[in-house]
Amino acid sequence: MTTTLRERIADELLRARSRTTALAEAVDEADLVKQHSPIMSPLVWDFAHVGNQEELWLVRDVGGREPVRRDIDELYDAFQNPRHERPQLPLLNPTEARGYLRTVREKVLDLLERVPLAGRRLVDEGFAFGMIVQHEQQHDETMLATHQLRVGEPVLTAPPPPPAAVEVAGEVVVPGGRFTMGTSTEPWALDNERPAHQVELAPFAIDAAPVSNGQYAQFIADGGYDDPRWWSESGWAHRQRAGLVAPMHWVPDGDGWAYTRFGVTSPVAPDEPVVHVCFHEAQAYARWAGRRLPTEAEWEKAARFDPATGRSRRYPWGDVDPTPAHANLGQRHLRPAPVGAYPAGASPLGVHQLIGDVWEWVDTDFTGYPGFSPFPYREYSEVFFGSDYKVLRGGSFGTDPAACRGTFRNWDYPIRRQVFSGFRCARTLDPAERAALG
Length: 438
Ligand SMILES: [Fe+2]
Description:
Layout: H1 5-25, H2 29-33, H3 43-62, H4 94-112, H5 127-149, E1 171-174, E2 177-181, E3 197-201, E4 204-207, H6 213-221, H7 233-242, E5 250-253, E6 256-261, E7 264-267, H8 279-288, H9 296-304, E8 359-365, E9 390-393, E10 409-412, E11 421-422, E12 426-428, H10 431-437
Parallel strand pairs: 8-11
Antiparallel strand pairs: 1-4, 2-3, 4-12, 5-6, 6-7, 8-9, 9-10
Helix pairs in contact: 1-5, 3-4, 3-5, 7-8
Binding site for Fe cation: 49, 135, 139
Pathway: Amino-acid biosynthesis; ergothioneine biosynthesis
Domain Sulfatase-modifying factor enzyme-like: 168-427
């Protein structure tokens, strides 16, 4: 029996909600309403905000139904309320929030049976439902990041990721020429991933795997945090101001480093991709290593370009949706997998772990592609365009497959490291290498 679009939407809504619920119910009421970091919302804000967005877009707009709680719209408007102010708002308490989410969801499942899924761009191929599924999953990753910032007894557990299956090291040469970046066909792709467009790139080399903790520890041991040569001017100023000495959550441990993850401290695993570094740290490491960060276009070409056909794939491994064999996604394992753990997920050129494990900083400001048009509202992406934000690509262990594609774009301030963020390096080929490529 084939799954209909409506069944798939219902499944995705349910899957997102079970994760949201698990993340919220893992802590007690006091922890739910508490702010664990000034850059994060109280978990109970994320929780009710997810329901409010679902109400705004699906109950009111798509369904044309009466508001459930028009009076709370302002409280859960992310633009009107900076994160540090959210704990002071008269938010729904956890019990009220649970009830609100239930009511909204009942209405959505009812209207999902009735509304046409064609004839209007907002509902074509279920777009608005897909947008809301992705929104909830994105907040689930944010809630997971809040869990990582929370201090207290560990409350989250998950089985470890698979061990390394192959040795992955060194760099891969990506041929020059045009490739298709972005998408015009992926039904649930967001406005900033659109439209598909041709990009011409010179050949370049990119790391076959994300930079590991072991590699990053060498940068620290070599005095990388104390040498302004490796840092940009703004990066060095931030490093000084913030007193950075190692990735977030790293603590000295004898001769080495330990790392606290979801309340459990253990020695840093050398073969795992480094995580919780900001853009400036990634850029400094790359310079120290005699390399640079890839541009966003380079990252996407390395991830999607199939040299045999010349076309761009949905994912590095092909066009099929991610399975547990392809990538470490979906909070299945609450840590990055070691380098070499996902040979089935490699790109045709042999670049590994582009999807899942850690978000990867790229050296590109967040802007619209040529032909960009805001949809369904300017506040989704367009208001963030400009030089304030750097792009992150590929998703992390905390990202759900529904909110992760070869074209998916994330963005944050270059000083942020509460994200599950790592990176890989790239390199411009010298003339002799380019000549050798023909
Ligand atoms: Fe949101």
